[in-house]
Task: structure prediction
Amino acid sequence: MPVRQPLPNLPIDRLRDPALRTIAAKLAAGERLDRADALAGFDTRDLIGLGLLADAANRALNGEVVTFAANQHINPTNICVLRKTCAFCGYARLPKEQGAYRYTLDQVLAEAAHAADGLTKEFHIVGGLDMQAGLEYYVTMFRALKANFPHVHIKALTAVEIAHIARIEKMTWSDVLAALRDAGLDTLPGGGAETFSAAVREQIAGKKLGGADYIGVHRAAHQLGIRSNCTMLYGHVETHQDRVEHLQMLRDLQDETGGFLAYIPLAYHPDDNALGAQLGRTGTATGGNDDLKMLAVGRLFLDNFRHIKSHWIMVTQPLSQVALHFGVNDLEGTVVREKIYHAVGAHTPQGMTLDQLLRLIRGAGKVPAERDSFYKVLRTFEGELAALPDQDAIARAAAGAA
Ligand code: V47
Ligand code: SF4
Result:
């Protein structure tokens, strides 16, 4: 069920790679791209041509508007049973290891107190697979957060954490999700996907929930009416083929349920984690070329997603700004105090102010808009409303295409 309509007037004569011209012809005819097209997108040396196509696809859906959420990341525990097997993770600790922490409810509420500013509209809550953080821990937390901050959306717990809670509580994924929803959970974030390929997973996250089960947890959530995001961790040992297979699995579930809100590629950071040392890589993460391709191919192949998000913390603010011309229509928000990437060498700030986000988006010639967690535009700034696409028309077009 593609959301995308045929794209006329593509600048075909500006495409240097014949494979991109094939893609352009399909886009013009409103046809779906196949795996070979996605592979050609990753392989192409014509980055600008790829960007032109992704930009056209994005503008047809979202106009010049770039959204963000005023959100706050909270990581309640870094204690994780997979500490020794997720080779890319620099955040987790074993229970008795130096630096291990698990917040009490009071500590969570103290951190969340930032939201008393009235600006924060979303808590993004994820952490380790902690044996002492079962259903009760999160039910109590979510109830208390909703009691204290009723206006704040709770986007919490990756598919991997949901499966962990289900395992320690001997419950089904659906029962865990339903109990958490009753306590205040609104949506699921997209973390934990890494790269679905079994061979890659074996090497970078040997004991982690498999790709098919990640999809299974998201399916269970969507069936309960809980929407979610999805991600792909890239720039480690995966091949372009692995990336395509991953995107295919995301697109298939989206065809089935329509429950994904956004796709967010996550650039691997090699510092302070075992995988980085094993690969002999430090300092630099992925390259800008690859970062832009991940976003652009995501935009073109995932024709049933309206929102492609750039995570500025991982790819830097300047690159995220350029990405707004490569198919991206959404930026990770204000964040406040990011920990996971700052444990693995991210040199970006731990948060951005509203003013900084607005400047970044305007600097790209785009129109900033604050959104809620379901991507409804809440406000634009300084009379920029005229640039908003007609949301009702887009919804009608999407329904017609379904
Ligand atoms: O699953 C861990 C990644 C993810 C490293 O849904 C690393 O809106 C790079 O998923 N280098 C969690 N990445 C974060 C996440 C996320 C972030 C922002 C928004 C949303 C959303 C989701 O972080 C993990 C893993 O893939 N990660 N270690 C590392 N060394
Ligand atoms: Fe634990 Fe997640 Fe880190 Fe893996 S990536 S060790 S599951 S916190």
Q: What stands out?
A: The mean pLDDT is 91. Residues 12-62 form one domain. The chain has 16 helices and ten strands. Residues 80, 82-83, 86, 89, 91-92, 128-129, 160, 208 surround iron/sulfur cluster (ligand 2) (CB under 6 Å).
